[in-house]
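Exercise 4. Each item below gives a protein and its sequence. For each, produce the structure-token representation.

Item: phosphoglycolate phosphatase (Desulfobulbus propionicus).
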Amino acid sequence: MCYKAVLFDLDGTLLDTLEDLATAANRVLAVRSLPEHPVAAYRYFVGDGVTTLAERILPEALRSPAMIAETVEAFQREYAANWHDRTAPYPGIATMLDHLTTIGMRLCILSNKPDGFTRLCVEHLLAAWRFDPLLGQRPDVPKKPDPAAALEIAASLGLAPAEVLYVGDTAVDMRTAHAAGMNAVGVLWGFREADELLAAGAWRLISEPMELPPLLAHSSLHTPG
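Answer:
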């Protein structure tokens, strides 16, 4: 094997969390008599952290720091109550993770979802597989696409960044990989489209989870982009 670890994004990559995220956010808006958004719109609202999500769902005139902070707090309460109603691994994820485990691939997760929620989702829905490190957004670490956390993961594994294959579903993931010196694989079952992933520098696109394992045999010295 040329790659020694796979670093996954979580939402839109391993887990389909969209409906539960949208439900929690729309409940926050409804209580304040603000316009709600269709579930599909949340494909473009999520992925950059909870503060950015709060800013995006609010009407532009209400995007003050205080209102955003209040919305973040309310969203976290709502999401804590309903995060597991519809969320589940995408079809084929379990088979793919089983295969990667069987061949001895090290598995990691890096998400812009708050660290507590990231761990909660993984512990309940992906407990059959070992992800180490498992990191969500932490207050003291810049969020993706800053490469700090991705580089932290590579270092903790004792690997060069080029030995880690990054798998995600948004431009943020592709840019994180590039900034960290990792090749990026964009998944087409997630929240964003192929054009976005390619424009952000995806090395490969895959439509099914089991299309990932064959890519692990490619040279890890390939230059991203």
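Check: The first strand starts at residue 5 and ends at 8.
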